[in-house]
From TrEMBL:
Annotated Gly residues bias: 99-112
PANTHER family xref list: IRON-SULFUR PROTEIN NUBPL
Species per Swiss-Prot/TrEMBL record: Acetobacter fallax
Chain intervals for the UniProt region annotation (Disordered): 91-116
UniProt protein name: Iron-sulfur cluster carrier protein
Top-level taxon in the UniProt lineage: Bacteria
SUPFAM superfamilies: P-loop containing nucleoside triphosphate hydrolases
Length: 381
């Protein structure tokens, strides 16, 4: 990486001084403090420290500020990273999640209930089983699998919650067809009810076009709030749609959520399985059992002639499961109807229950429900 001298902090602050947030009616320097400026590889990187509750609301102003800085200091291209102030002691009652190591970052604002005197701060104390749906990389259909698995578990007679932990790319609101912000009651967010399950996502709290340009501490703080500041209530199972990769968010969930187990989603080709192995290794290091592998996009059937084509190969996840001595949970086909159902906000297990894809998801849900009942000693349906 080639570093070079860039504009002085005073010059950066002068440009930012011309940026006024229309919703709040204040100049950006009055809302955010320049924490650092650096130039490398032709890019001007500016870090702004902002109050945690303001960070989600400054997306449009930050985008305009990046354009202004790029123009003022051409040919450099500017990028702005928001990081949150740590709350002063006693400034606000910590949420249950923050009380257990949220690090003081509360990017979702002031929701949260202080436990009563003598009451231990616990996460998910009325949730029987917590299952992470994960992948080593993006683009393998993890979120679609998590949504249809959760809905399928509900159809198996379980009380189910679904938490979207992908802070940078929350897709749950679109996939479930939910609109509007969740209600806050007694300081806690109330999960949205959709298709027989309870759901919560940071995407329900911000505009879907807003980029969440957050550092690790803010991401971990948001996840702590989604765990501790949401009234999940009594659930048989909470399904967590994990972000792709093996970073801070995954470690936070593995440490805080007391995961019962993880399901790994992969496509059949070797390059995807390499990343899936990294995900499995992460859960092993954090002592989270891997409940099994799912092979998504396993094959494609032509809707006109019925011819089956294995676009990404076939059987790679099954072979990997055998090699690692973990269960193989099933194959999900690659079908246009799955994509269309996700875009429409109606999970295919609901919208087309007799379809090949829905049947594959229902088989997956039935297998996982059996595991949940054994672990929780729930009676069979």
């Amino acid at each position: 990486m080639t570093e070079m001298h860039g504009p002085a902090r005073e010059d950066v602050e002068r440009v930012l001084g011309g940026m006024i947030d229309g919703a709040i009616g204040k100049r950006l320097p009055d809302l955010a403090r320049v924490e650092a400026c650096s130039v490398a590889d032709g890019r001007l990187r500016v870090t702004l420290a902002v109050p945690a509750d303001l960070a989600p609301r400054l997306g449009e102003t930050v985008a305009r500020a990046e354009d202004a800085l790029s123009t003022a200091f051409a040919p450099l291209t500017a990028s702005i990273l928001l990081t949150a102030h740590r709350e002063a002691p006693g400034a606000a009652a910590p949420a249950q999640g923050a009380a257990q190591g949220g690090g003081g970052h509360r990017p979702l604002g002031g929701v949260g209930r202080k436990p009563a005197a003598g009451e231990p701060a616990r996460l998910l104390e009325h949730v029987g089983v917590v299952i992470a749906v994960a992948s080593g990389k993006g683009g393998v259909g993890k979120s679609t699998t998590a949504v249809n698995l959760a809905v399928g578990l509900g159809m198996e007679g379980l009380s189910v919650g679904l938490m979207d932990a992908d802070v940078h790319g929350p897709s749950l609101p679109r996939m479930l067809g939910t609109v509007g912000q969740p209600e806050v009651r007694d300081g806690l967010l109330i999960p949205v009810q959709a298709w027989g399950i309870s759901a919560m996502s940071i995407g329900m709290l911000v505009d879907e076009t807003q980029a969440m340009i957050w550092r690790g501490p803010m991401v971990m703080g948001a996840i702590s709030q989604l765990l501790g500041d949401v009234a999940w209530g009594a659930l048989d199972v909470l399904v967590i749609d994990m972000p792709p990769g093996t970073g801070d968010a995954q470690l936070t969930l593995a440490q805080k959520a007391v995961l019962t187990g993880a399901i790994i989603v992969s496509t059949p080709q070797d390059i995807a399985l390499l990343d899936a192995r990294r995900g499995i290794a992460m859960f092993e290091k954090t002592r989270v059992p891997v409940l099994g592998l799912v092979e998504n996009m396993s094959y494609f059937c032509c809707p006109n002639c019925g011819h089956r084509t294995e676009l990404f190969g076939h059987g790679g996840a099954r072979d990997e499961a055998m090699r690692l001595n973990v269960p193989f949970l099933g194959e999900i086909p690659l079908l246009a109807d799955i994509r269309a159902s996700a875009d429409s906000g109606v999970p295919i297990t609901i919208g087309a229950p007799e379809s090949e894809a829905a049947q594959a998801y229902r088989m997956l849900a039935a297998t996982v429900a059996g595991t949940i009942r054994r672990v929780s000693r729930l009676p069979p349906v």
